Amino acid sequence: MNCFRKVFAFKFVCSLLLSGLLASTCFAGTPWRFVVTSDSRGNDNGVDTVILSEIADQIVNHGVDFVLFPGDLVDGTSTQAGMESQLLTWRDAMQPVYDAGIGVYACRGNHEVNSPGHTAGYAAWNNVFTGAYAMPGNGPAGEQNITFSDTHKNAFMVGVDQYIPGQTHRVNQTWLDAQFAANNQPHIFVFGHEPAFKVLHSDCLDDEPTARNTFWASISNANGRTYFCGHDHFYDHARVEDGDGNPDNDVHQYIIGTAGAPLYNWPYVGSYNGDNGPYTPQLVHHASGGEDAGRHGYVIVEVDDLDVTLTWMERNKDTGEYLVTEQWSYTAVPEPASVSMLLLGTVSLLKRKRQYRA
Fold first, then answer.
1. Percent of the residues in the chain that have a pLDDT greater than 70, as a whole number
2. Which residues are CB-contacts of 251 (< 8 A; sequence separation ≥ 6)?
3. Is 10 a residue whose pLDDT tops 80?
4. Residues 127-164: tens digit of each pLDDT
5. Which of 38, 40, 226, 282 lies in disulfide reach of 52, CB 3.0 to 4.6 Å?
């Protein structure tokens, strides 16, 4: 009888703790949101301050928790002083977002690197994005403040620089793998400047296809479902088939180079003709007005426990309104490590109970 009671108690405690885990994981609180947009370079000291200021106001009005900005904040210039000046203009346009207490996570694009060169460009970046404006300082050696990760509520965000000398068009995969291994949040959001799969620009991560494939697989293996980028000045959403026949675990590429940079026209929409193997990008939605090229805008991401909805907010060029024109939703996979920790905790609890009764 005592043996039966012990087994029953063990199962009962496991049931209670599992219920608690599921409740805390699947019903973790009120929905929250963030915004993604990129590429705001223009003619006002290297920035399109008109469109960027509009989007900054939209961000504040949405009351989001943070912003991801995957590069090409500015047009760039040949000197460190000039680059700092342009980045300060960008920061000034985004100041309402900072003043609202909304976090801003930005990584570099080619225009923050190519103009003054890596060393001067990196110094300019660090001189502007410092103090309250700094990114998390947990990046690998030589990439602090440009490669980083952070945790917010039930999400894990990673910004990856792709312009370190000697590893252009690649990410620091060793560092990224360690970040994924240490993460215990169900939502994974990775962003960097260049598309992983070529759309219009010829220079992107498929310049290094083996490294790109490793990077893409690492996002999938970590249960991530999205990769945010810019570089091409339009909105393009593609589902990247991985060949297993299950679309519900494919990672989606979101190009959101729409924060003010000159808009591009992609004459062959849906023709992803880069070095894609073994993956197959499939068009989900492309924002283009034909002869009017792309559209400015941003993506708002809502996280509701394990459910995520991504909404493309497209600017109407005639009215200046930002309107919903595409949505996609998915459900994240709960972090399996939590179950292991739960069982360890259950065993520990029962051991303490036996010691107490002894």
1. 84
2. 216, 219, 220, 224, 225, 226, 227, 240, 242
3. no
4. 999 999 999 999 999 999 999 999 999 999 999 999 99
5. 40
Nearest residue to 28 (alpha-carbon basis) of 341, 338, 299: 338
User: In the structure encoding, which two tokens stand for residue 176, read together?
Assistant: 């990224």
Question: DSSP code of 290?
Answer: G
Which residue, 92, 96, 106, 51, is CA-closest to 297?
51
Q: Tell me, what CATH number does 310's domain have?
A: 3.60.21.10
Residue 233 resides in a domain: yes
Into how many domains does the chain fold?
1
- Specify the pLDDT at position 294: 84
Residues 97-107, buried b or exposed e (16+ Cβ, 10 A)? bbeeebbbbbb
Residue 136 neighbours by CB under 8 Å, 6+ apart: 105, 148, 149, 150
Q: Is residue 89 in a domain? A: yes
Asked whether the beta carbons of 233 and 257 are under 8 A apart, the reply is yes
For tokens 């499939």, name the residue.
282
Q: Is pLDDT at 337 greater than 80 in this prediction?
A: no
**Ramachandran sector of residue 172 (left: φ over 0; alpha: ψ -120 to 50; beta: rest):** beta
The pTM of this model reads 0.87
3-state SS, residue 210: helix
The CA R_g of the chain, rounded to the nearest whole Å, is 22
Residue numbers of the domain that contains 57? 31-357
Give CA torsion, residues 191, 194, 200, 201, to 10 deg: 160
Q: How confident is the model at residue 29 (pLDDT cuts 50, 70, 90)?
A: confident
The reply to whether 12 falls in a domain is no
Give the up-direction half-sphere exposure of residue 179: CA atoms within 13 A in the CB hemisphere: 27
In this prediction, residues 285-308 reach a mean pLDDT of 88
280: left (phi over 0), alpha (psi -120 to 50) or beta: beta
Q: What is the mean pLDDT of the chain?
A: 88
Per-residue pLDDT, 334: 85
